[in-house]
Amino acid sequence: MTDRFDIVVIGSGPGGYVAALEAARLGGRTALVEESPNLGGTCLNFGCIPSKALLASSHLLHEISEAKGLGVRVEGSATIDWAAVQKRKDSVLRRLRAGVKSLLEARGVVVLSGRGRLVGPGKVTVTDAKGAVAQIEASNAILAVGSEPVRLPGWPEDPSRVCTSDEALHWKDLPGNLLIVGGGVIGCEFACMMQAAGVKTTVVELMPEILPEMDESIGQTLRPIFAKRGIAFHLGTKVETLECNDAGCVARLSSGETVTADRVLVAVGRRPKTKDIGLETVGIAPSPRGFVPVDDRMQTSASGVYCIGDANGRCLLAHAASMHGVVAARNAMGQSASVDGVPIPGAVYTFPEAAGAGLTERQATEQGIPFAIGRFPIGHLGKAMAIDRTEGFAKVLRHRETGALLGVHMVGHNATECIALAVGLLHKKATVEEMGALAMAHPSISESLKEAAEDAFGAALHLPPKKAIRVVADAD
Ligand SMILES: Cc1cc2nc3c(=O)[nH]c(=O)nc-3n(C[C@H](O)[C@H](O)[C@H](O)COP(=O)(O)OP(=O)(O)OC[C@H]3O[C@@H](n4cnc5c(N)ncnc54)[C@H](O)[C@@H]3O)c2cc1C
User: Fold this and answer.
1) Which of 108, 109, 141, 215 has the fewest CB atoms in 10 Å of its CB?
2) Average pLDDT score over residue span 347-374
3) What separation in Å is there between the alpha carbon of 146 and the centre of ligand 1?
4) pLDDT digit string, tens, across residues 380-421
């Protein structure tokens, strides 16, 4: 007999499992289909969590290397045991997967193991690892199939040498030297992690600056910090050819230079896993890159079919996927929800960290918005000096006519936590004056945000009396 559900969710990443929990919370009979033996998707198994667990070990080693500056003498040399680092990371993943499983059980979500495929309106097949096919029916389907790393065609296919983040996060040992192709968030987090662990690291980036998706000031600030530690950068450069043999890999760059490496990490982007999931059976036409178009309610062009997270291409971040999941589940359950107006922060977990929310300077300029910039160097803060973490800045974009807060960007210790303040204020459509009126804990890194806000209207007290406010763009 065909099992019937109110909602079927395909994919158990941070989009899918959260959508399933919300649908079940609202009283829907909910099925969650997952083809991997592990729940949690990219985020938990090949993304956010494993990368942050590995970064934590590298960061500690980096901090020990700087202990002398705080008057702490470390006898002998601290070294990293990568097998032990991996073991700890795996135990974190196991605990979190168990947590997702028990949350789903507690809400009565039926988890079906296998590959989900739409086979017409309201119908989904689930093919298990042995090839057995079951059909289920559901009034609504939420596609949460996520994405996978792009592998460059024509490059050597040996995954022990030419890797994506999928393999690199689970390396049993470290290479002596590593070439990272792509200086985006994943490339930079790996570069920081690997260099601190003792790997000679080179980054090749096609764009003129690293982290091109963030505010330009972030890459401009972080790159010299990383370069000082020994990471080599080739910007505005393409890897023309890559050849590997038993001795290693040789990359020829568009600059004419050559880079040799034991391993290569390809971090040039991700593509949606929307092939062969039966989109055509419900009349959905994906974009040329395979993303499923949705409106702000996460509704696709097919009635009763929603698409969330990386697969819709709106924002390839875990917290965006989870928010999409809640919105889709509510709409599928007859409520009215939208992602319109919800700011999504971007975070980079290097050391120092970086984060941003709202418009970047380039976006504001391109949109012709008249804005002023407030800036505050992290190094001026009492907290930064006390803990010897003085690198970075806070930057605030203020609408020059309305005073509205447009965007906040920062590099510095705990930036990924501090950015929460900006997210809240942007969501509430606060003005920069309102931001400047807040009292921050003292001493804290968050004080830089208040000071940068005040600087944007010429009132920062912990900067010398103001030069004229930097006016960057004029309306008309
Ligand atoms: C190295 C790395 C680090 C990252 N770090 C961060 C970070 O720090 N912060 C952040 O916000 N984001 C980070 N991300 C991005 C984040 O992991 C993704 O944005 C997020 O996982 C997307 O969630 P999702 O639910 O859309 O899809 P996914 O997490 O990709 O989950 C999709 C799930 O669907 C399953 N699936 C696919 N097709 C089918 C099918 N037909 N049937 C059944 N199951 C199927 C897959 O097996 C998978 O479990 C990182 C990504 C990487 C690669």
Assistant:
1) 108
2) 98
3) 5
4) 999 999 999 999 999 999 999 999 999 999 999 999 999 999
Minimal-distance CA residue to ligand 1 atom 7: 48
| Residue recorded with tokens 């032990």 | 84
Q: Which two tokens stand for residue 259?
A: 């880079």
Nearest Cα residue to 260 out of 271, 248, 272: 248
Calpha distance 348→318 (Å, rounded):
13
Q: Which atom of ligand 1 is nearest to the CA of 165?
A: 1
Ligand 1 centre from 162 Cα, in Å? 21
For a ligand 1 pocket test, name from 42, 55, 136 the mutation site with the most ligand atoms within 8 angstroms of its C-beta. Answer: 42
Q: 7: exposed, middle or buried (C-beta count within 10 Å: 0-12, 13-18, 19+)?
A: buried
Residues 457, 433 contacting (CB under 8 angstroms): yes
Answer whether the bond into residue 465 is a cis peptide, omega within 30°: no
Question: 0.90 cut: is pTM over it?
Answer: yes
Active-site option among 62, 399, 409, 442: 442
How far apart CA 21 and CA 16 sit, in angstroms, is 9
Reading the block at residue 201, the tokens are 């690291």
pLDDT of residue 469 exceeding 80, the answer is: no
- pLDDT of the residue at 2: 82
Secondary structure element (H or E) that encloses residue 203, with its range: strand 200-204
Determine the pLDDT at residue 468. Answer: 47
Which residues, other chains included, contact 90 with Cβ-Cβ below 8 Å and sequence gap of 6+?
none
Tell me, yes or no, if 442 is annotated catalytic: yes
